[in-house]
Amino acid sequence: MARVVVDVMLKPEILDPQGRAVEGSLRRLGLTGVNDVRQGKQFIIDLDGVVEGARLELLETLAAELLSNPVIEDYKLKVIEDPA
Amino acid sequence: MSIDTVAAAEVSPEQSQPFAELGLKPDEYQQIRDILHRRPTSSELAMYSVMWSEHCSYKSSKVHLRQFGEKAPKTDALLVGIGENAGVVDIGAGWAVTFKVESHNHPSYVEPYQGAATGIGGIVRDIMSMGARPLAVMDPLRFGPADAPDTARVLPGVVAGIGGYGNCLGLPNIGGEIVFDSAYLGNPLVNALCVGAMKHEDIHLASAKGVGNLVVLYGARTGGDGIGGVSVLASETFADGGPTKRPSVQVGDPFMEKLLIEATLEVLQAGLVEGIQDLGGAGISCATSELASNGEGGMHVWLDRVLLRDATLSPEEILMSESQERMCAIVCPDRLPEFMERCAKWEVEAVVIGEVNATGRLTVDWHGERIVDVPPRTVAHEGPVYERPFHRPAWLDALQADTPDHLERPVTGPELRQTLLAMVAAPNLASKSWVTSQYDRYVQGNTVLAQPEDAGMIRIDEATGLGVAIATDCNGRFAKLDPYAGAQLALAEAYRNVAASGATPLAVTNCLNFGSPEDPEVMWQFAEATRGLADGCLQLGTPVTGGNVSFYNQTGDTAILPTPVVGVLGVIADVAMRTSMAWHDEGDHIYLLGDTSAEFGGSEWANHVHGHLGGLPPRVDLDRERALAKVLVTGSTSGLLVAAHDVSDGGVAQVLVEMALRAGTGATVNVPAALEPFVFMFAESAGRAVVVVRPTEAGQLGALCERAGVPLTEIGVVTAGAELTFADLFTVPLGDLKREHERTLPELFG
Known about the structure:
The complex is a heterodimer.
Chain A: E1 2-10, H1 17-28, E2 40-47, H2 53-67, E3 73-81
Antiparallel strand pairs in A: 1-2, 1-3
Chain B: H1 6-11, H2 26-36, H3 42-51, H4 54-57, H5 62-70, E1 78-80, E2 87-92, E3 95-103, H6 105-110, H7 112-128, E4 133-143, H8 149-169, E5 173-180, E6 189-199, E7 214-219, H9 231-234, H10 254-269, E8 275-278, H11 283-294, E9 298-302, H12 315-320, E10 326-331, H13 336-345, E11 350-357, E12 362-366, E13 369-374, H14 376-380, H15 396-401, H16 413-424, H17 433-436, E14 447-449, E15 456-459, E16 467-473, H18 476-481, H19 483-501, E17 504-513, H20 520-540, E18 544-550, E19 554-555, E20 558-559, E21 563-572, E22 589-593, H21 604-610, H22 622-637, E23 643-646, H23 651-663, E24 667-669, H24 677-682, E25 689-693, H25 698-708, E26 712-718, E27 723-726, E28 730-733, H26 734-749
Parallel strand pairs in B: 4-5, 9-12, 17-18, 24-27
Antiparallel strand pairs in B: 1-2, 2-3, 3-6, 4-6, 7-10, 7-11, 8-10, 9-11, 12-13, 14-15, 15-16, 16-21, 17-21, 19-20, 22-25, 22-26, 23-25, 24-26, 27-28
Helix pairs in contact in B: 5-20, 7-8, 7-10, 8-10, 10-13, 19-20, 19-22, 22-25
């Protein structure tokens, strides 16, 4: 058993309208000192067996090309072996 | 981090500058040095390079575009002509309408969703900067083959981007085109049109008038959008750890744009603004230099006051940033507090970045240091102009000689039936509802006609029913066979589409999409197309009000089909008198207006069935188009016509199928004795329309056509049945036609 977690965020220099909207709401609702809000998405993929070698490479490719849009987004892929 | 200042530039004339990487030619760079009598600073180089780019300066097209002004027909309808953000047309009753089409081709290829979305955003800002409320959008689109993998990548993103942005803004998308051709593989065309309306007194222009007036930048903050190219200037100023690469992609925020529309219209209507300009290509460089150049001639800008999304931006990048949803206004100092108050009400950030003066110079400071000191006209209006060489392509004779006459044609009833079913499912003729149903076509409640009708129509004045209709068209295959005729055929088709809806054609906009102007054969196509369009507009009495040129649409040496997209705007006194393409009642008579001959060069039949392109396009007769439009408009507004539909791609057969499917009832069609059935069904002769009248009013139609000099032929009668019958040839159930017509796009993209 393994769990692969992929975090996808807009590249830092790309405008994030949703993050901006959340930022505005946080302020309106009384939160002080807000500097910036960025919103992203997370994929949690549970798999049988181990994640390494060619399988990990495939996951990296899928994260780069399917789960994220490489033109405007960055991703981070994390493998958790034996998630309890 | 060191800043390149005017003072530094004066003492370091020998410093090498990356002008070539910024797209400037050596002689253009020398020209800048001659203007300034020194080397430009890096900020000045950034401004000149982007403002002298083909996109902003029209340096290759200018000498040809002049014809649109020189050959403009005399008309009182044109309130603001070419050169402003968009042309403005008088439609009567104190109302004025502004409309324009622009390209966003390259950005949409790189990032389809954001590219198409920001294309809508940009054209909407052009319209509101004239003082008009944006009312509707349209999108003429061209993609590679429908079944190409890259089309599957680009098309859904483009459609979602147009829908996402336009729907969020609350603007109906009332039409456009979707065309597939292998020539567009790798170079999709994403053009966007917006139309807006205002009262005459609300028209505003982009000029910085009044010494002492303030330059206010408002809207979204400035970030590193769309400045990929300028990073060569900035690279040396980045400390380690800064962003490694600036994106060439701009991301749009339609909700910000909506606030910007409301804030802009409010400050304009409150009389708080002396001049206004939207920020699009070339961002602050373009807005400040154009405003100054059009006004008193001088302006000073404190660039460090610009509100930033990304604090690491260099001044060069701020000058060139194409961050979306920004506007620039010229405001009297005593009106500034109220201006700021109105912006705050709409949660739009605003900041004074400069002041109008009479120095004749555009000066820009960055934290107290002078980084730009230039004559604004040299940046905005007096850039290089090229008389690029052009010549008729050597291959054209062979292409024109390869006529479609030798292609195998269907003859028997079963063959014609099979061809019809194949044609209605061809990607270029198939139902586009998979796309258009992703757009909100009826928001705001003023949409009278939208896709799949010939033209989009919206109501402008609720009290009187005054409205406008717009259609965009271009058959790039015709333009390849003969660019002069192809441009006129595009004009004629859009003109006819508008007339078929019942509106009187009034004015023209265009988006001229071509390959590289440095290729003399492409340049010839461009020269011929503009000449054809200018001559055609003069003959039809419809002036060009503005438009856009998109060059370099090519992969390697292969250019796209020359694609001069033409948009025609018409006015209708009461939208209740419009005519739709759906026929109604059993027994109504169907007529074909105009002459049909065996014209198949560039036709959809040759393209789809045989993959053939050759011969000559259909003959152009603009006097006939004018006469036909007169019949259509008079027939429509007098209530004579029950239904009308222009005949173009796919010929009469396609028209009859569309009318029947729209109505849900069939017809019995008789092929005129003088015509071969195949020619009657699929020829694409211009100057034709199919109209439907009640049997009792057939005589009136005959008299109307005779007065106008338009031939008419009765070709059938509407039935209550659910099939389309071509007498003595074949019958096909509407259900089969509908299935074939509607399955293509969902199967490819659904």
